[in-house]
């Protein structure tokens, strides 16, 4: 399957540790170290572009919509924060997610997500021994749907690294904007975050117009990012492949309810996953 779908001439996923593999990996790692973001262009072969788009468009109506007031840290908006704290800036989250259990197993994005060579490649790109699919039956693989007029507002990710692929481009807008390393494990840098939210981000903000079939690797826990408002008549669809370093990761009940409008018994049993740092989110 992999050889057919992925351009393995360029991205030798099936030749683990070959010279070509190592060449790609070292390039990716250098870019990730510099900006926290790397786009592997034309990762999926062009003949699959329409299938990728259609499979996404078919499930997009299954996205859970909810007008949610959020801030960049995904903490309670009414928290008792200082007046100039960036967590006080509120946004309407206008994107919606299709949960993993609504993505057919034969869809390209599902086959990539669960592919062992793909996982091995992704892990090596991030310098990890291996990655695990989330044990969460809803949030491991999602389709992110941003309809015309909507945006996916500024936020940090809970995951340290994210893998994604646009499956349908909007007519205009829907640009991925990010601020490389604006915070670190040691420092929140609230002043810089505040500047970006207030539109004074200037050189802190980079812009990427992603294209379908490109694979994006991103370290979103330290880089503030958003999808700018989508313009025109076509929704923006992107597949989010979520992996973790530890096995068994399951989302919290409250977050799962917010994102998907439902929880499963496994969420009620698991409680909140433990993380390695104390950053707000
Ligand atoms: O859809 C995208 O390109 C970005 C999605 C994102 O930032 C997220 O799901 O956390
Ligand atoms: Fe994100």
Structure notes:
With about 280 residues, the protein is an alpha+beta fold. Helices cover about 25% and strands about 20% of the residues. The chain has a six-stranded antiparallel sheet with strand order 1-12-8-15-6-4. It has a four-stranded antiparallel sheet with strand order 7-13-10-11, with no helix packed on it. It has a two-stranded antiparallel ribbon with strand order 2-3. The chain is globular and about 55 Å long. The termini are far apart. The chain has a single domain, classed as Sandwich (Jelly Rolls), CATH 2.60.120.620. The model is unreliable at about 270-280 (pLDDT under 50). It binds 2-oxoglutaric acid (AKG) and fe (ii) ion. Fe (ii) ion binds next to loops. InterPro entries: BesD/HalB-like, Oxoglu/Fe-dep_dioxygenase_dom. Keywords: Iron, Metal-binding, Oxidoreductase. Belongs to the iron/ascorbate-dependent oxidoreductase family.
Q: What topology emerges from the helices and strands here?
A:
Layout: H1 2-5, H2 19-35, E1 37-40, H3 49-59, E2 68-70, E3 91-93, E4 95-98, H4 108-114, H5 116-125, E5 132-133, E6 141-146, E7 152-155, E8 162-168, E9 172-173, E10 176-179, H6 190-197, E11 206-208, E12 215-218, E13 224-227, E14 230-231, E15 236-241, E16 243-244, H7 253-260, H8 265-270
């Amino acid at each position: 399957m992999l050889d057919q779908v992925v351009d393995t001439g360029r991205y030798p996923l099936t030749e683990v540790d070959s010279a070509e593999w190592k060449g790609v990996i070292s390039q990716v790692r250098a870019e990730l170290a510099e900006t926290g973001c790397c786009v592997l262009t034309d990762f999926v072969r062009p003949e699959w572009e329409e299938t990728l788009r259609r499979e996404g468009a078919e499930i997009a109506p299954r996205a859970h919509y909810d007008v949610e007031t959020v801030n960049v840290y995904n903490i309670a908006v009414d928290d008792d924060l200082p007046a100039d704290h960036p967590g006080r800036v509120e946004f309407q989250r206008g994107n919606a997610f299709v949960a993993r259990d609504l993505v057919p197993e034969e869809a390209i994005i599902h086959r990539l997500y669960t592919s062992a060579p793909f996982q091995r490649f992704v892990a090596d790109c991030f310098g990890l021994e291996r990655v695990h699919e989330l044990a969460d039956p809803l949030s491991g693989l999602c389709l992110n749907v941003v309809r015309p007029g909507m945006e996916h507002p500024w936020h940090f990710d809970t995951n340290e690294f994210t893998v994604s692929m646009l499956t349908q481009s909007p007519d205009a807008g829907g640009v991925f904007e990010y601020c490389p390393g604006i915070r670190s494990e040691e420092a929140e840098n609230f002043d810089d975050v505040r500047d970006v939210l207030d539109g004074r981000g200037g050189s802190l903000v980079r812009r990427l117009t992603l294209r379908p079939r490109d694979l994006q690797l991103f370290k979103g826990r330290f880089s503030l990012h958003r999808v700018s408002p989508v313009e025109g008549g076509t929704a923006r669809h992107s597949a989010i492949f979520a992996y973790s370093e530890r096995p068994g990761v399951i989302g919290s009940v409250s977050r799962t309810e917010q994102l998907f409008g439902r929880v499963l018994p496994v969420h009620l049993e698991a409680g909140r996953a433990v993380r390695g740092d104390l950053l707000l989110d």
